[in-house]
Amino acid sequence: MMEILHRDGLARIGRFEVNGRAVETPALMPVINxxxxxxxxxxxxxxxxxxxxxxxxxxxxxxxxxxxxxxRKGIHSMLDFDGIIMTDSGTFQSHVYGEIEQNxxxxxxxxxxxxxxxxxxxxxxxxxxxxxxxxxEAVEETxxxxxxxxxxxxxxxxxxxxxxxxxxxxxxxxxxxxxxxxLEYYPIGGxxxxxxxxxxxxxxxxxxxxxxxxDFGNPVHLFGAGHPMFFPLxxxxxxxxxxSSSYVKYARDDRVLFPDGTRYLSDLRYVPYPTEYLxxxxxxxxxxxxxxxxxxxxxxxxxxxxxxxxxxxxxxIFEGTIWxxxxxxxxxxxxxxxxxxxxxGYSEFLERFESLSRKHPFYYTGIESTLRPTITTLExxxxxxxxxxxxxxxxxxxKDLERAMRYIGSYDAHFIIKxxxxxxxxxxxxxxxxxxxxxxxxxxxxENLSTVLDSIDYDVLxxxxxxxxxxxxxEKDYLVKSDGRDLDLLRVKAVADYQFGHGASEALFKGNVDxxxxxxxxxxxxxxxxxxxxxxxxxxxxxTLKLDGGILLHKxxxxxxxxxxxxxxxxxFNRKGKNVFARxxxxxxxxxxxYDEVLVVNENDDLIGVGxxxxxxxEIRTLKKGMVVEIRENL
Length: 635
Ligand code: GUN
Description:
The protein is an alpha/beta fold and 635 residues long. It has 3 domains: 2-345, Queuine tRNA-ribosyltransferase-like (TIM Barrel), CATH 3.20.20.105; 360-485, no CATH class; 501-634, PUA domain (Archaeosine Trna-guanine Transglycosylase, Chain: A, domain 4), CATH 2.30.130. It contains 25 helices and 27 strands. It has a 6-stranded parallel sheet. Helix 10 (200-211) runs parallel beside helix 16 (334-344) and helix 12 (246-252) runs antiparallel to helix 14. The two termini are 34 Å apart. The model has no long low-confidence stretch (mean pLDDT 96). It binds guanine. The site of guanine has 13 residues, from helix 5.
């Protein structure tokens, strides 16, 4: 079973457990060929931090000695590995060698008997050049076999491979069919020929078609993706597992893996990503070694580089820099860059998994950064929630903001600031990602001014895009001084509407509003209304909702808006301040996003408390394990 520990969009760090053995994901399972063990599984565990491996039950079953050994000792003892062992079924051999002699139920039975932790069905490999009919048959036959295999698998976890060649409707169908079987594990198959030909954009389409049709809580494995170059983007799409024979295959040809591509050993004079196995110091010695010895060392280097890449990806998810990391890595090959662009084309879907903020600032790495869902979300929320009536709208450039401050503070108008990441109303300049964005002086700006202006209510437009005038001679008929203009109040209202949705500010700020600022920094900290503390402002410019604020929103927003509805069993615990676990959520507002502030209610819509959700409803619905909503204050 899979528990999600940290997440960013679809990318996640999880804990996958089976038969008392656990692995943290994303994880790379090195392929072990039981006939030729290049690095022993024990060494993999002890020196490379490998907690899960994959081997081939077809190869074992075919060889009388291996078969006997595996049946007698069990696969863990045979391979001398006490981590997770997944077994594949022989499908890949059918792709390489054509039809194989293997009954699809026998091979599952065999995997069960040798004690595999995750067995794989004998799926039908759908080749990229398949006709639609052939691909459809592969999907249907794979599903049929999966259904029958499920009946005999017993307690063994079963991987149901998703096939469908390059036909996205078939990939979607295959994912839905497999999902309906409620298996424990979901590999995506038939992609090796695409990986070998750098057809990464096709893989993006396939993975997204599958991810959009599988339950979020399911572990997903990309079969045969063993080159570290593709790991970052794959993880960003929500892939949890990889398997790799690349570390051996490439080493056999004297080829060296690096996170940015592959090089021939003979071409190296320096080692761009050195490891303890291969570095500039020992490079010449390794080149002149005997073939077998050299092969082993290169395999170790290749494995180390691959495992290190997984570690870097995990660190970037944890730090909130996975998007920056993938963009950076996408520059190592134009096909990867194309694939990233393909992925950003799914922004509407991705936005549902996008949190309003992350702990790391937004770094602009290039023109594509403004296509990230964090920026498309920003734009959409401004269009939807910045709905105030003013007679005049002034647009200006970010670099002129300081000069404009005296006007912004005293004239009643919309002030829209053109920045690299879009056109932003002044009131929203201090929220993530705007305030926290690290932008270069020269960037390709996100050109959305006309869209933003279209959504704003005003009569007269004043453009200061060519600079702020020395006096307001031309503007004097329109720009009207407003003595009571309270920028702080305008700001907290706009942030509340942006964060909680239209109508929030009206519900929250009725009465005597007291905005309390930090004495040291001058930043807004707490908001009291009629003496009650309703909101606190975080460093990312958004609010944490206090219980008194929650009571106001609960009263103003109709059911089920902003709500997480928990079962009776859960209510008792949540009323004591205990967090909400996945199994106890009955329903939830569909528009809530991960890390949003929420109102926790029972089925009668009685307010239980306020808190923060870690997942959206699409996700919670399918999670079997783990805490999903943190209760901050309870009634
Ligand atoms: N290994 C690489 N690709 C595949 C696939 O499509 N199915 C199975 N079972 N194993 C694979």
